[in-house]
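Ticket #4471: structure output looks truncated?

Reporter: J.K.
Steps to reproduce: submitted the chain below (464 residues) through the standard prediction queue, then opened the result file.
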Amino acid sequence: MALPALAPKVQVSSNGLEATLTFKIPDGKNDVPSFTAAQLLGFLNNANVTFGIDQDMLARLADSPIYGRPVKVAEGNAQVQGTPGYFEYTFETKFNRTPTIRPDGTADYMSIKTIETVEAGDVIAIYHPAVQGSRGMSVRGQILEPKPVRDLPPLIGRGFDRSRDNLTYTAKISGKIEVNQGKINISPVHELKGDVGIETGNIKFNGDVIIHGGVKDGAIINAAGNVIIDGLIEECSIHAGKDLFLLSGVKGNEKTVISCGGSITAQFVEYAVVTCEGNITADYFFKSKISCDGRIDLNGNNASIIGGAVSAVQGIQVNDIGNAFGTITNISVGVDLERTAEFEMLAKKIEAINSNVMKIKKGIEEFDRIGQERGINYKEDPRRMQLLRVRIRDEAIVLEETKRLTKMKEVIVSGKDASIRVLRRLYAGVNVSVDDHHAAINDTHERVEITKSPEGLKLTKIGI
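Returned output as attached by the reporter:
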């Protein structure tokens, strides 16, 4: 059916939840048409608008049309979206492992939070099941389906129990808790309230160690996991299989030895020998021997390296190196010839052992061939058994040494483009090295970056 020339325009919103009528403004040349509510309803029906029609509005528009702007005359019911299932954890899952900087520019290492611990019986997680949404209806009578939502599978891991309805998770043991990709692990933690020394004895633990005091008196700490020490480190030996946090710093006496399989965060290090497979973040180093396979970043106003020997494969950033008294300070980044030679020697060692394994395999095959020809079973022959034992041993050595070689290669590659960034002063008396390039600094420089070039070491001014 054809519509009158001045029939109102019907529009439906893109989401189908609203319909409007727009009356054309009269041009004054023709009589202004009038429409009954029934006619207006007919216009809507012609546009397939059949649901949520406001009959009262149609009646008002029939009596008093509104020209030139759309007027809502129908409204649908929006679908209600559901809520997917989710876990509410009652413990911290993310930590800021860098110190906050105080207003005076110093670094606050005690502000660092490293791990979260729970007690046996603590509720560690609550599951909120999925809530399905409800349907809606468009003004054209179309059913609007909500997006489907799903429940999550129960948490997996160790060290906790869950209720029969899978809604409440409770710690089974006291210890460190962490969550990773929906898997919760609670592992034992060795926690000590005071200092470690003669009275406590040494600590060896296959997990994380937390010490709410210092370490002194030549004590030894050997942990497979993280080590967190609140107090001052004096004469001692510390090994952490993972990360190491020394929140009050190290005041060694040249007998303090620290090694770490992860990264180190320390307030300061004085008179200590430190080796680290990850990165090191600290305030300052003083007359220490420090070796790092990652980066060294010194923070705060006191960020400086004075005396000793400090190396980092991936680079160093610090405010000051050396001092006005000309204290000899050795700084190196990148990969030196010694590390490259070690890599090459290990590769040759693996090649030699592999060659020997191949000879042993041929010897075993020869035993088996002769036995087959003679109809004799040589599998229990002592000579064959000895060859088999040597083959198994050497194959295990090759596997372990290949892993070490791969890790060494990753470290060497990571040292490409390493540099030394000095944000304030590089003093005379400092010896710097980048890979196999060396230079003695005879004058004080301000704000420089030291890199390697084909001609040797290059000092570039850092812009403010």
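Triage note (M.O.): checked the attachment and the full token line is present. The mean pLDDT is 90.
Status: closed, working as intended.
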